[in-house]
């Protein structure tokens, strides 16, 4: 059974990025107003880049406080945090530094160490900071995901082995087809346990992956995730074409 999919349309990638930024800043303001911690996991890629830039610009205009926000990642490449391929480096340059996020609220996946060790350390840190759901998986308030042209999300790619798809771990080391190949990813179970999941399905070549993911016979990673969740929000420029 598919989750309820909320499709939000943006006329182009830039307008879509600003729409997501506005919606997220509304959430951050609410958390700040209620003085509750807010835990978010970021992804990488070009859609994330557009989104981060929009958030930084609008957060300054709206004077939004990020004091209650803790930053995690849904995946990371196995490279140093200063590497141009690092998802942390992208967020640090466009979001964390511009917003002045405090260092102890940044919980990056350590792409520079052994991937198995990095996955274990990240899970220990996340469990230390986040309450766990009844099923024992730490609870994130929001996971942002990009959508790959093959329907991948985070670093969960098509035709992954069964032990990856069914893993109850929170993070796993992965070798994937998207360069750089060696990565650490949040698992399907971990993403499914998040309070909210927002997918940024923007950029050229995503329509087919999105259409396939929304069909009942889907075999894409996004389609698999949709089946695991009761609701998922998808921001796309797809319907405006
Ligand atoms: C990564 C990302 C990956 C990305 C999608 C979409 O580490 O590569 O987390 O999941 O979000 O591949 O990337 P684009 O927005 O660049 O198409």
Describe the structure.
The structure is a single chain. Helix 1 crosses helix 2, helix 2 (46-62) packs parallel to helix 3 (87-99) and helix 7 (207-214) packs parallel to helix 8 (221-228). The mean pLDDT is 94. The chain has a six-stranded parallel β-sheet with strand order 1-9-8-5-2-3, sandwiched between helices. It has a three-stranded antiparallel β-sheet with strand order 4-7-6. Helix 2 (46-62) links the parallel strand 2 and strand 3. 38% of the residues lie in helices and 19% in strands. The chain has a single domain (5-236), classed as Rossmann fold. The longest helix has 21 residues, at 13-33. The protein has helices spanning 13-33, 46-62, 87-99, 115-129, 162-165, 188-192, 207-214, 221-228, and strands spanning 4-9, 38-42, 69-73, 75-77, 142-146, 171-175, 182-186, 196-201, 231-236. The protein has 241 residues and is of the alpha/beta class. The site of 6-phosphogluconic acid has 17 residues, from helix 2.
Q: What's the layout of helices and strands?
A:
Layout: E1 4-9, H1 13-33, E2 38-42, H2 46-62, E3 69-73, E4 75-77, H3 87-99, H4 115-129, E5 142-146, H5 162-165, E6 171-175, E7 182-186, H6 188-192, E8 196-201, H7 207-214, H8 221-228, E9 231-236
Parallel strand pairs: 1-9, 2-3, 2-5, 5-8, 8-9
Antiparallel strand pairs: 4-7, 6-7
Residues 43-48, 75, 87, 146-148, 152-155, 178, 203 line the site of 6-phosphogluconic acid (6PG).
């Amino acid at each position: 059974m598919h989750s309820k999919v909320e499709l939000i349309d943006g006329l182009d990638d830039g307008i879509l990025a600003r729409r997501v930024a506005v919606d997220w800043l509304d959430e951050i303001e609410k958390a700040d107003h209620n003085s509750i911690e807010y835990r978010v996991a970021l992804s990488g890629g070009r859609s994330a880049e557009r989104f981060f830039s929009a958030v930084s610009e609008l957060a300054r205009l709206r004077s939004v406080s990020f004091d209650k926000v803790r930053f995690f990642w849904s995946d990371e490449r196995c490279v140093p945090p200063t590497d141009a391929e690092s998802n942390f480096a992208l967020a640090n340059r466009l979001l964390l530094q511009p917003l002045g996020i405090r260092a102890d609220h940044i919980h990056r996946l350590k792409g520079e160490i052994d991937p198995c060790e990095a996955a274990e350390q990240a899970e220990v840190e996340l469990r230390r900071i986040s309450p766990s759901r009844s099923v024992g998986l730490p609870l994130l308030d929001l996971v942002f995901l990009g959508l790959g042209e093959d329907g991948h999300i985070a670093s969960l790619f098509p035709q992954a082995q069964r032990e990856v798809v069914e893993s109850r771990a929170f993070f796993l080391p992965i070798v994937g087809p998207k360069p750089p190949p060696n990565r650490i990813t949040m698992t399907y179970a971990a993403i499914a346990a998040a309070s909210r999941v927002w997918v940024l399905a923007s950029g050229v070549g995503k329509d087919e992956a999105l259409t396939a993911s929304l069909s009942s016979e889907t075999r894409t990673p996004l389609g698999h995730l949709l089946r695991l969740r009761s609701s998922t929000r998808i921001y796309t420029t797809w319907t405006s074409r």
